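User: I'm putting together a teaching handout on how sequence relates to shape, and I'd like one worked example. Could you take CENP-V/GFA domain-containing protein from Exophiala dermatitidis, show the sequence you're using, and then write out its predicted structure as tokens right after it?

Assistant: Happy to. First the sequence, then the structure tokens directly below it.
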Amino acid sequence: MKLSPPVEDGPVTNCNCSICHINGALMVYPLESNITWESGFDEMKTYTFGQKRIAHTFCPTCGTSISGKSTDPNFFAHNRAINVSQPHELLCHFSYFTGPPGSIHVA
């Protein structure tokens, strides 16, 4: 996957939804148009739960959380949440935001 601008330029959010919390996901929220999937995205599996507002993609082999995309056109329709907690060598490049529920701000 490639992001433009680079993923390190954006703040990281410690998402507080149940699946992200369980998976330890740390998310950046680039515009979908700024993401280029180089390989493997077609093999990813999708999981939804609750109100089914977010389609979470994960690796079918190891279960690693990859990304999340809104299924609601009125809820961050142009962004994709990318889990940057994998690979770990990226983590030292970010500034972090941890806030109360409902406080995620996306560009």
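A couple of points you could highlight for students: Helices lie at 18-23. Residues 2-97 form a domain with the Metal Binding Protein, Guanine Nucleotide Exchange Factor; Chain A fold (CATH 2.170.150.70).
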